[in-house]
Write a structure and sequence with these properties.
The complex is a heterodimer of chains A (about 400) and B (about 90). Chain A is built from 14 helices and 17 strands. Chain A has about 400 residues and is α/β, with parallel strands linked by helices. In chain A, a hairpin with a 2-residue loop joins strand 1 and strand 2 (about 20). In chain A, helix 3 (about 60-80) crosses helix 10 and helix 4 (about 95-110) packs parallel to helix 5 (about 125-135). The longest helix of chain A is centred in the last third of the chain and has 22 residues, at about 305-325. Chain B has a single domain (about 5-90), classed as 2-Layer Sandwich (TATA-Binding Protein). In chain B, strands 1-2-6-5-4-3 form a six-stranded antiparallel beta sheet. In chain B, a hairpin with a 3-residue loop joins strand 5 and strand 6. The longest helix of chain B has 12 residues, at about 75-90. Classes of the chains: A alpha/beta (about 400), B alpha+beta (about 90). The interface between A and B is medium-sized, with 19 and 18 residues.
């Protein structure tokens, strides 16, 4: 069992008071707070090791390069990838998905091909594929969602065919917290010869993820949602697939050789080895170091404990929210065994932003709006929703305070 | 002559179908702004000092003690500015 009170001591920001109240941060699905260890690692990098990686033979550059490569290895081990060749550092989940859409989709999708995406996806896992389909002419097929927010497996099976070339699905919904059975989805998709891309933005930070076991071809996630800094994220890709793919961006780092050919009046170019082939330009080495430290922090807690802690919080909050105020309505399934620590809700007669502003008045931070998942809100028939989302430093006492404030809303 | 920017730190369009606008008042001016607005608009409902549901002309909006307000059904930024100007004058 995780000791949230002890963990809180590592997070300086949690000591803040907002509007005269002790801050309660329940917007973890948007971004997480950072522990002292991550902040120190970033400071240490800039104070002692900062240099451009893979560029020079001087001591600082070698140190920075070693740290940068070590960060790749740490990520590979964390998600059980084969090795660091399968770990591409990007800015975040959005860029990781765009990388696959452009570097794979643009070169492999044809007019008759189909890409399957679910209606519960974050816009990041919809828009890049819609853009590509406008270029290649491939069809987009949307997997339906049940009334309780779970994936409609029948719809998935019905849409799957030999025309399906890519299945894109979130591991955990960023609105409902529902965990999709991506292992089963990957198996079915592979039976039809399709590739599978998993949006792991809400899963990798919150539960143990073993990519070998899931057998997805791509996994995208962000550092800033898992205690790491912003501007660093990961694309995992199976080595043999990444090997065959064309690069996403061109520039330094991603090439082995660029040689001008007098006869052709062109440069002949050969790509660098993995993962550098997909990391054009000066990389975010400091971000990578911060992410490495964040992973080490999470590993010390244990991802199983992270998952259990969020389950306890979610089990605790749902009945209390319903009991404290008759006007509160929780959206999606309340079955915590298939959920991470995300609770979407509304209050009759109030807009999501009214609720968020009301809670903000008491120093409680939640997200309101579409959460970049408009199609799912349309499926639910909602104009927007409020989302409370938890992480390792949240406590039952904070939930008590949250439900106490929520009760106040009933007076309005 | 009152200037809206003397009181308002920033405005933010909301995400969602509602398309509301959230106005964040400057920290050191928020109490003065709230007092002026409550003086001009009629209070429909309130929870003492925390949230005020207000009406002014054909507009309805809510003001929070934290120094934020949410305005609904506005046509554009110009309409918001002229409404704020009237309320803060």
């Amino acid at each position: 069992m995780l000791d949230a009170q002890k963990i809180r001591e590592d997070f300086p920001i949690l000591k803040r008071r907002i509007n005269g109240k002790q801050m309660i941060y329940f917007d973890n699905a948007a971004t997480s707070q950072k522990p002292r260890q991550v902040i120190d690692a970033i400071k240490d990098f800039y104070e002692k090791h900062n240099a451009n990686v893979h560029r020079a033979v001087h001591t600082l550059s070698l140190e920075a390069s070693e740290l940068y490569e070590e960060a790749h290895e740490e990520v590979a081990e964390f998600i059980h990838a084969k090795d660091m060749e399968e770990i591409v550092f990007v800015r975040g989940t959005t860029e990781a998905i765009n990388l696959v859409a452009y570097a794979w989709g643009l070169h492999n999708l044809k007019k008759e091909d189909e890409v399957l995406v679910s209606l519960m996806e974050h816009h990041s896992n919809i828009v890049p594929w819609e853009i590509i389909s406008r270029i290649t002419g491939n069809k987009m097929k949307y997997i339906e969602v049940n009334d309780d927010g779970t994936l409609n497996c029948e719809s998935f099976e019905n849409l799957l065919s030999k025309k399906t070339k890519m299945v894109c699905l979130s591991h955990v919904s960023n609105v409902t917290g529902i965990i999709n059975d991506v292992k089963r989805i990957a198996k079915s998709a592979h039976d039809y010869g399709a590739l599978v891309l998993i949006d792991g933005a809400q899963s990798v930070p919150h539960l143990p993820v073993n990519i070998k076991d899931l057998d997805a071809d791509f996994l995208a996630f962000s550092g800033h949602k898992m205690l790491g800094p912003t501007g660093i994220g990961v694309l995992y890709g199976k080595q043999e697939i990444l090997q065959k793919m064309e690069p996403f961006h061109g520039g330094g780092e991603m090439i082995k050789e660029v040689s001008y050919n007098e006869k052709t009046k062109h440069c002949s170019i050969s790509w660098n080895v993995l993962p550098w082939k997909f990391e054009a330009g000066t990389p975010n080495a400091c971000g990578a170091v911060g992410l490495m430290e964040a992973i080490r922090y999470l590993k010390r807690i244990g991802m199983g404990s992270v998952k259990s802690h969020e389950e306890i919080l979610t089990e605790y909050v749902i009945p209390r929210m319903e009991a404290c105020c008759k006007k509160v309505k929780i959206y999606g399934t309340k079955n915590t065994s298939i959920k991470c620590g995300i609770v979407p809700f509304g209050v009759d007669g109030l807009s999501s932003h009214d609720i968020a502003l009301f809670l903000d008045n008491y120093g409680i931070m939640v997200r309101s709006g579409f959460h970049c998942a408009q199609p799912l809100h349309e499926t639910f028939g909602l104009s927007s929703s409020v989302r409370a989302s938890f992480y390792v430093y949240n406590t039952l006492e904070e939930i008590d305070q949250f439900t106490k404030v929520l009760k106040e809303i009933e007076r309005f | 002559m009152v200037k809206v920017e003397d009181y308002v730190a920033r405005t933010e369009g909301t995400c969602g179908k509602e398309q509301d606008v959230i106005v964040i008042f400057k920290y050191d001016k928020k109490d003065e702004a709230i007092k002026k607005i409550i003086g001009k608009a009629s209070v429909k409902k309130s929870i003492g000092g925390i949230i005020f549901e207000l009406a002014y002309q054909s507009f309805s909006f809510r003001v929070y003690g934290s120094g934020k307000a949410i305005f609904r059904g506005l046509k554009n930024k110009e309409e918001l500015n002229s409404l704020l100007l009237e309320l803060l004058s």
